[in-house]
Give the backbone structure.
Amino acid sequence: MPPYSVLERRFARLDAVSDAAGILGWDCQTLMPDGAADGRADQLAVLRGLAHELLTSAETADALAAAEQSAGDLDHWQRANLAEMRRLHAHAAAVPGDLVEASSRAASKAEMVWREARAEADFGKLLPHLSEVLRLQREIGAVKGAALGLGPYDALLDAYDPGMRRATIDPLFAQLRARLPGLVARARARQAREPAPLPLHGPFPVEGQRRVGLALMRALGFDFTRGRLDVSLHPFCGGATDDVRITTRYDEADFGRALMGVLHETGHALYEQGRPAAWRHQPVGKARGMSLHESQSLIVEMQACRTRAFFEFLAPLVREAFGREGAAWTAENLHRAHTRVEPGFIRVDADEATYPAHILLRYDLESAMIASDLAVADLPGAFDDGMRDLLGLTVPDDRLGCLQDIHWPGGAWGYFPTYTLGAMAAAQMFRSAQAAEPGILAGVAAGDFSRLRGWLRAHVHAKGSLVGTDALMAQATGAPLGTEAFLAHLEARYAGA
Amino acid sequence: MPPYSVLERRFARLDAVSDAAGILGWDCQTLMPDGAADGRADQLAVLRGLAHELLTSAETADALAAAEQSAGDLDHWQRANLAEMRRLHAHAAAVPGDLVEASSRAASKAEMVWREARAEADFGKLLPHLSEVLRLQREIGAVKGAALGLGPYDALLDAYDPGMRRATIDPLFAQLRARLPGLVARARARQAREPAPLPLHGPFPVEGQRRVGLALMRALGFDFTRGRLDVSLHPFCGGATDDVRITTRYDEADFGRALMGVLHETGHALYEQGRPAAWRHQPVGKARGMSLHESQSLIVEMQACRTRAFFEFLAPLVREAFGREGAAWTAENLHRAHTRVEPGFIRVDADEATYPAHILLRYDLESAMIASDLAVADLPGAFDDGMRDLLGLTVPDDRLGCLQDIHWPGGAWGYFPTYTLGAMAAAQMFRSAQAAEPGILAGVAAGDFSRLRGWLRAHVHAKGSLVGTDALMAQATGAPLGTEAFLAHLEARYAGA
C-alpha cells in the first residue's frame, strides 16, 4: 500500500477513536449518573492515550516522511490532507503519552470538582485541582512550543486555531479595548432614550420551548438523521461525525435563553454537518479551527437572528407555542427585548457588545497564568479587578466571577480568544454574504435560510481544512480578519442614530 | 514493575476501552440517529481492534508468562485474576485482529439491515449479511477451537459461558425436551379448569409505567448513582462499570410487559453493581458468564416476582399509578394474569414453561449452521419446522419466525443456550436461598428484597469470576447445575393440583 494510503487508513482509525470520545463526552454532560464520573474519566484518558500512540508511532512517522517524498503524485486535497496530518503529528509527537493521559485525567477530575465548587462559590475547593491542570498545561505548552518554535501560549492556542498567534491577537484586541467602552456607553444612552421593551411574562413550558427550538433547527437546515437536540447544564455542540449533538438548557421564566442557545449551537452544527463528505473522516475534512467554528455559530445567532427580519419569522412561532398575543408579542418588541446592551457578570449571558470584555479579561489572565506571571491563588482577585476595569462591575462572589466557566478546569487553555475572533469573522462574513446574496434578510424574515446557508456551505463548510483561516477569510471576504466589520456592525445595531 | 502489576495496569486499560464500547453500544440502541450507524459501526470495530491489539501484544504474552512463573507470590484473588487473564488471552490470541474487526463490522451492518428486514418480514434482504456474519463466526470458532482444543461451537460458547460444553448441555436439554411438552399440556389443562383472569383494561400511560418501574428498581436495590433506566426497542442491560444502564419498552395497552422487563434487567444490573468493588476493572471481578448472568435476571423476574407474594406488593403500586380499583386489580387476579402458559411465536414474550422450547430450537439450528449442516438459506424452513414440532405452531411469516432475534445478525452465536441454563440455575439457587433465608417471600410481599439480595450478593455477585460456574453452583446450592429444581418449580407453579 502506498504510504499516503497507509496514512489515510490510520487517520480514519484515529478519527473513529476521536468520534467515540466525542459521544462519551456528550454523554458525560447530558445523561451520565454521578457515580460513573471516575470511570468515564478513565475511559476518555485511555482513548486519548491510544489515539496518541497511534498518531505518534514510528509507523506513522515513517509513512509521513515517505508520503512527503512522493507528494508530487497527490492531488490538491490529498496534499492538503498530508499537510494537516503533519501538523497533527507535530503537535502530538511533542507531548509524551504519559503527559496526555495525566492531563486528560486531571481535567476530568477538576471538571467534576468545579461543578461543586461553582455551586458552593468555593474557589479554595477547586484551587489544588486547577493548579494541577495549569501545571500540566504549562508543561504541554512548553514541550509543544519547543517543538513548533512557538511560545507556550501560542503553542496551546495553535491547537484550537491553527496559525493564530498572540502577535496577531494583541493589536486586534487592543482596537476593541480602545473602541468598545465608548460604544457600549453610547448604546446604553440610546437605549435609555428609547422606550423599554414590554415584559414577556412566563412561565414558558419546556415542551413549547423545545418545539420552537426544533422548528428553528429545521428552518436552518439541521439534518436530524445525523444529529440530535438534548439538554445539558452548559450548552454545547458535540458528538461525532454524522452524529452532531447540540444541547440547550431551559428556563421556564425566559424562553429567549434556550432559543438563542439553540440558534448558536445550530450554527456550529451546520458547519459540522456541512464538512466535505468525501473527506469527513480525514484531517483535511475537519473544521478549520475554533475561531471559524465560532464565526458559524455567531453568524446564525448574532448576525442573522438578532435582526428585525428574524423576529418577523419568530414572533408567530412563539405566540403559537406559548398561547400569547398583544403588544409584547410583536416582532418589534421581541426584537427590542433580545438586543439589549447591559454589562453583567456571566459571559455566556452577555450581549454581543459587552461579550468581548469578558474575553479580553480571560485572555489576559490565562496568558499571565501560562507565563507564571499570575499565581492561581491570586486568580479571584485579578478576575474581580478586571471586571471592575473593563465593565465597571463589582463581583459579589466567585460563582459570578472566576468560577463561572468550565474551560480552565477542563484544560481548554488558549481557547477563550477564539470566541471574539469568531465574532469578528462572523461580522466580516455576513457583510460579504449579504453583498453577494442580497436576498438573505428577506429569506430570514420568511424562515428561509437557504441563501445564507448556501453561501456558508460554499465559502466555509465545504472547504474543511483545505486552506488556512487567513486564506479562507481572504477568499470569502476579500480581506484578512479584522475588527472593522465587527465594530461597524455593533455601531449600526446598538449605537446608531 | 513486577509482571503481575504490569498485567493489572494493562487489563485496567482494556477494561476502560471495553466500558467505552459498552456506552457506545447502549447509545446505539437508545438514542443514536439513523445516519450515524455506519460511523458507530466503525467506532466499535476500531475499539475492539485496539483492545485486541492490547490483549494479544507481545508485551502481554511476555508478562503473562513471567507472572505465571512467580505466581507463588500472589494471593488467592490475584491468582484467579491471572488465570482469567490467561483465559482471555488464549481466546483473543487465537483470532487475528483483522478477523475481529471484520466480524465486528459485519455484525454492525447485519444488525442494521436486520431492523429493516424484520419490519418487512423479508428474510432475503438479511440473507447475504447473515451469511457473512456466519462465515466469520465459523472462522472464529475454527481458529479458537484449534487453539483451545475445542469444537467450533464449544469454542464460541466458551466465550459466553466459560467451561460450558455441548457435552454438558445435550443431556440437560434432552431432559427438558422429554419432560416439558407434558408439563405444558398439564399446565394448560389446569388453566382451562380455573377461572380466566379478569381483563386489565388500558390504556396505561407511559409515565405511570415508568414511575412503577423506578419504584421496583429502588425496592430491588438498584443504585441510581451508578446506573439509569431508558427505552429501547429490544430491552437489555448494558453500559459500563459503575454506569449500568437497563432499558425497557412501553406498551400503553399492557403494563406487564415493561414492568416484568424492568424486573428482569434489574436482576442483571444487581449482578453488575454487586461485583467485587476492589476488582471491578479486572478480569476476576467480572460476572462469571452469561448463564449465571441470566440466572440473576430470572431469579428476580421469574423466581421472586411471579409469586403471589410479589403481587401483594405490586397491586397497590399499579392501582395507584393507573388510578384503577376493583376485582381485576387484586393481587390474586394480577398474579393469575401474569402466570399464564400459552405457546406463542415470540421468544421474548414467552412464559417460563414454553420459553425453553424456543431455546432448544435455536440451539439446534445454530449448532447445525456452525457445523455447516444447515445452510442459512434453509433457516426459515428449518425454523418453522421446529416451531411446529416443539410448540405445535405454524409460523405465518419470518418476522414471527427466524427474524425475531438480534443474536444471529449481531454475531452472538453460542449465546442462546445460556438463557435456559440460567433459568435452571435460578430455580436451583432460589430453592437454596429460601432454605437458608426462610423470610425471603415474606420480605418480597412487603417490597423488602434485602434478604434475597443479601444471599445473591454473598453467593454470586461478590464472587465475580473467582471460581468457575460449576464450583459456584456447588458452593451455593450443594449440587452441580441440573434440571431437577427447574422442572420441580414449573410443576409446582403451573401443573400442581
